[in-house]
C-alpha cells in the first residue's frame, strides 16, 4: 500500500511503524497476576501496553526494572506470550484490523494539509477514528490500567515518535553520537574491572604500567548517580561486572552491547550529554525556527542558517526524508519538545 501511495505522494520515514504500533497496542491484553508465581506476578502486572509490545517485538526489557527482574521476565516470556492462548478472546483477537488501518492510511495520504504522508498525518486520522466508538467493538472495551485505551495510545505513539525524531535531528545536526556513549560504557567497565582486581594497565604509548583511570571512573559514576559510600560503590561496581558476565553467557561468541546491558545508564549519559551541549542546542533551536516560517530566506553567511541547512540535508540523505517532511519533523519537534 505504501508503494502505491509513493507513486502519488512522498511517504516519510516511520509511517509504517506508526500505523503498526498503534494497531498492535489496541490488541494487547493486561497480564493477570494470578496466573504467575508470586515473585513474577507484580512484575508482569506492572507492564504497560508499550512495554509489553516492546517485549514481544524485540525482547526489549522495561528500563526501570532491576537486572534480577529482567532475568525473571525473560524466563517467563513464553508463559506471558501464551497466557490467553486457550480462551475464546485470546490476545490479538480484538483490536484494530488491517482493513481499518489500510483505510486510515489512504485517508491520511489524501489529507491536503500535509505535503507528504507522515506519521503526523496518520495520527491526525487516528484522532478522528477513535471518536467512532459506536462503529467498532474494540473501541468500546473498558480501559484497564492503560490497556484498551485506543485514544491514549495515540499519545503513547506520538511520544515514542518524538523520541525517535529527536535523536534523528540531533544526529543530523551533529549532537548525537551513540558510538561515543557505547565506548564510554565499555571503557568504564574495563577500568573498574582493573580497579576491583587491583591491577595496573600498560600505557600503549610509554609502555609503562599505570593505575586504572580513576578520573574517568569518577566522571562516569557521577553521571549515573553511583553510590558515594566506599563499600556501596564497590558493590555497585561488582554488580556491573556480574551483569556483563551474565549477558556474555546468554550471548556466547557475541560482542557485548553495553546499551542493551545497561539501558538506564545509557539514558543518563544521553541526558548528561544533552545538558552539556546547551549552547550548541540553542543555535540549533534558532536555526530550526527559521524554517517554521514559510518562505524564510536566511543569508548564506548566517551560521544558524548553515546549521539548519546541514540538518535538513542530513535528514534527507541519512534518514530518507524529503525536504517537506524534514521541515515538518523539525517544526513538530520544536513545538512539542523545545518550545
Task: Give the secondary structure arrangement, pairings included.
Blueprint: H1 2-6, H2 15-26, H3 38-45, H4 49-58, H5 67-75, H6 77-81, H7 98-109, H8 119-129, H9 150-173, H10 178-196, E1 201-202, E2 209-210, H11 214-223, H12 230-250, H13 258-261, H14 263-276, H15 278-290, H16 303-319, H17 323-337
Antiparallel strand pairs: 1-2
Helix pairs in contact: 2-9, 7-8, 8-9, 9-16, 9-17, 10-11, 10-12, 10-14, 15-16
Q: In summary, what is this structure?
A:
The protein contains 17 helices and 2 strands. By secondary structure, it is mainly alpha-helical. Strands 1-2 form a two-stranded antiparallel ribbon.
- What pattern of helices and strands is seen along the backbone? HHHHHHHHHHEEHHHHHHH
Biggest sheet record: 2 strands, antiparallel
Secondary structural class: mainly alpha
- Compute the separation of the termini in Å: 35 Å
Residue windows where pLDDT falls under 50 for at least 5 positions: none
For this entry, give a set of tags.
2 strands, two-stranded antiparallel sheet, 17 helices, 1% strand, flat, mainly alpha, 339 residues
Description:
- With 339 residues, the protein is mainly alpha-helical.
- Helices cover 62% and strands 1% of the residues.
- The chain is built from 17 helices and two strands.
- The protein has helices at 2-6, 15-26, 38-45, 49-58, 67-75, 77-81, 98-109, 119-129, 150-173, 178-196, 214-223, 230-250, 258-261, 263-276, 278-290, 303-319, 323-337, and strands spanning 201-202, 209-210.
- It has a two-stranded antiparallel ribbon.
- A hairpin with a 6-residue loop joins strand 1 (201-202) and strand 2 (209-210).
- Helix 8 runs antiparallel to helix 9 (150-173) and helix 10 packs across helix 11 (214-223).
- The radius of gyration is 24 Å and the shape is flat.
- The protein starts with a helix and ends with a helix.
- The relative contact order is 0.10.
- The mean pLDDT is 89.
Amino acid at each position: 500500500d505504501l508503494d502505491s501511495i509513493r507513486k502519488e505522494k512522498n511517504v516519510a520515514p516511520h509511517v509504517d511503524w506508526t500505523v503498526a504500533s498503534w494497531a498492535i497496542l489496541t490488541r494487547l491484553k493486561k497480564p493477570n497476576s494470578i496466573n504467575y508465581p508470586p515473585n513474577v506476578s507484580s512484575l508482569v502486572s506492572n507492564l504497560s501496553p508499550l512495554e509489553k509490545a516492546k517485549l514481544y517485538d524485540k525482547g526489549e526489557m522495561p528500563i526501570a526494572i532491576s537486572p534480577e527482574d529482567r532475568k525473571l521476565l525473560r524466563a517467563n516470556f513464553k508463559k506471558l506470550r501464551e497466557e490467553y492462548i486457550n480462551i475464546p478472546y485470546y490476545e490479538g483477537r480484538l483490536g484494530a484490523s488491517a482493513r481499518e488501518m489500510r483505510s486510515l492510511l489512504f485517508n491520511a495520504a489524501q489529507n491536503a494539509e500535509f505535503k507528504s504522508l507522515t506519521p503526523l498525518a496518520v495520527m491526525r486520522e487516528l484522532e478522528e477514528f477513535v471518536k467512532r466508538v459506536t462503529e467498532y467493538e474494540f473501541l468500546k472495551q473498558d480501559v484497564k490500567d492503560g490497556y484498551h485505551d485506543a485514544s491514549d495510545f495515540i499519545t503513547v505513539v506520538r511520544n515514542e515518535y518524538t523520541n525517535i525524531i529527536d535523536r534523528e535531528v540531533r544526529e543530523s545536526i551533529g549532537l548525537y553520537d551513540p558510538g561515543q556513549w557505547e565506548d564510554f560504557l565499555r571503557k568504564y567497565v574495563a577500568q573498574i574491572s582493573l580497579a576491583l582486581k587491583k591491577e595496573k594497565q600498560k600505557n600503549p604509548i610509554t609502555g609503562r604500567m599505570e593505575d586504572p583511570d580513576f578520573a574517568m571512573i569518577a566522571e562516569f559514576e557521577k553521571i549515573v548517580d553511583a553510590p558515594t559510600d566506599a563499600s556501596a560503590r564497590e558493590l555497585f561496581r561488582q554488580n556491573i561486572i556480574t551483569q556483563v558476565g551474565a549477558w556474555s553467557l546468554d550471548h556466547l561468541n557475541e560482542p557485548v552491547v553495553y546499551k542493551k546491558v545497561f539501558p538506564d545508564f545509557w539514558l543518563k549519559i544521553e541526558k548528561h550529554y544533552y545538558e552539556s551541549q546547551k549552547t550548541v542546542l540553542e543555535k540549533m533551536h534558532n536555526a530550526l525556527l527559521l524554517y517554521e516560517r514559510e518562505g524564510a530566506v536566511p543569508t548564506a553567511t548566517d551560521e544558524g542558517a548553515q546549521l539548519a541547512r546541514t540538518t535538513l540535508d542530513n535528514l534527507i540523505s541519512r534518514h530518507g526524508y524529503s525536504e517537506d517532511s524534514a521541515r515538518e519533523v523539525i517544526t513538530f519537534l520544536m513545538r512539542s519538545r523545545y518550545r
